[in-house]
């Protein structure tokens, strides 16, 4: 991921991530009289966006792909502000939507750090952690796993920390508790830029977000006595500035995490399998029943847990199926986006031409 250039400290949107790269990308829109804005929330065909003059509620073009929280956009000011175009996304958290007509759904854009919340008030599901890691790696952002509710842990937190670290090679895994403050200083130090919170319902994302924000700005639910789990409370993705710098995007709990063409992300999640595969006899080894397969040999001698290989195969199949199904639809959508941007710019320039 390319690091953005240093921002201008005098720009009103610097605290939201505005920088020299964005200014360069926005030059044509600025010449057309449009204003830069960052989307902080999207709902019902409208977007709430922060601009150089404050926060506005703007309409969105229903003919183009919808914006998502974290997007940078070109705003046409006026009595009814409109998001005329969305700037190219530097990174994006994208999953396959639920249902038979699944399609790519952007959860957050221009993200630098993905904080994956995993509650210790119950058993952490390895498969869900692996899926969320695949989404994070594929986006181009840096994942961090945050083990929450350490004060309510049902098993030894140190054991869960070690087990989770085994699932996430190259990823920081931190133990935290918003009730006691454990680990929050360390977490604050490793979160940079635009941070998105991902996790299942009741994982403690909103409580964690409030701790990072230094105020109770996100709604939280009560903890159930029987299992120590919180209730799902976040219903919108929302972007808020952090007091230590950067911004935070809180997201609703994910009941399903469908993968959408995340092959590269999966390879990073299962880095040990990727390394082993280099020693297989065949370069295209599928690690099923091929002779001299280093991956299968590692499973047989106990060096690689069989569960990891089963999960790896499953996620690759799911990702490949979604990619093949969505390829034509994705090309059509991108073409529509480009045409919409060109159409808006042409209309804007025509409107600004001097009348003879």
UniProtKB/TrEMBL annotation:
Function recorded in the entry: One of several proteins that assist in the late maturation steps of the functional core of the 30S ribosomal subunit. Helps release RbfA from mature subunits. May play a role in the assembly of ribosomal proteins into the subunit. Circularly permuted GTPase that catalyzes slow GTP hydrolysis, GTPase activity is stimulated by the 30S ribosomal subunit.
Gene3D superfamilies assigned to the protein according to its UniProt record, in alphabetical order: P-loop containing nucleotide triphosphate hydrolases (3.40.50.300), Probable gtpase engc, domain 3 (1.10.40.50)
Annotated positions binding Zn(2+): 280, 285, 287, 293
Class of enzymatic activity (EC top level): hydrolase
Quaternary assembly: Monomer. Associates with 30S ribosomal subunit, binds 16S rRNA.
All residue ranges annotated as the CP-type G domain in the record: 101-257
Protein name: Small ribosomal subunit biogenesis GTPase RsgA
Localisation per UniProt entry: Cytoplasm
Recorded family membership: Belongs to the TRAFAC class YlqF/YawG GTPase family. RsgA subfamily.
């Amino acid at each position: 991921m390319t690091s953005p250039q240093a921002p201008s400290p005098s720009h009103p949107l610097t605290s939201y991530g505005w920088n020299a790269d964005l200014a360069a990308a926005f030059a044509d829109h600025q010449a057309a009289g449009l204003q830069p804005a960052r989307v902080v929330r999207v709902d019902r065909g409208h977007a709430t966006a922060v601009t150089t003059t404050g926060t506005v509620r703007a309409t969105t073009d229903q003919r183009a792909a919808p914006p998502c929280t974290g997007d940078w956009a070109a705003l046409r000011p006026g009595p009814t502000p409109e998001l005329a175009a969305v700037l190219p996304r530097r990174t994006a958290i994208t999953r396959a939507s639920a249902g038979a007509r699944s399609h790519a759904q952007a959860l957050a854009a221009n993200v630098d750090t993905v904080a994956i919340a995993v509650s210790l008030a119950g058993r952490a599901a390895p498969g869900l952690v692996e899926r969320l890691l695949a989404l994070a790696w594929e986006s181009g952002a840096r994942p961090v796993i945050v083990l929450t509710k350490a004060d309510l842990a049902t098993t030894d937190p140190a054991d869960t920390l070690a087990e989770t670290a085994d699932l996430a090679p190259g990823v920081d895994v931190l133990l935290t508790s918003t009730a006691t403050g454990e680990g929050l200083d360390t977490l604050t130090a490793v979160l940079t830029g635009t941070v998105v919170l991902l996790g299942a319902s009741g994982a403690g994302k909103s409580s964690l977000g409030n701790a990072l924000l230094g105020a109770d700005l996100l709604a939280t639910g009560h903890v159930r006595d029987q299992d120590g789990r919180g209730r799902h409370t976040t219903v919108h993705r929302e972007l808020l500035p952090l007091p230590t710098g950067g911004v935070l995007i809180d997201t609703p709990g994910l009941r399903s995490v469908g993968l959408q063409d995340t092959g590269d992300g999966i390879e990073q999640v299962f880095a040990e399998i990727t390394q082993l595969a280099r020693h297989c006899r065949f370069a295209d080894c599928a690690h099923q029943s091929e002779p001299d397969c280093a991956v299968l040999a590692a499973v047989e001698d106990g060096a690689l847990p069989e569960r990891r290989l089963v999960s790896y195969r499953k996620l690759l199949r799911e990702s490949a199926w979604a990619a093949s199904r969505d390829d034509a639809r994705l090309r059509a959508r991108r073409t529509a986006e480009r045409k919409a941007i060109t159409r808006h710019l042409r209309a804007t320039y025509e409107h600004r031409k001097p009348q003879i």
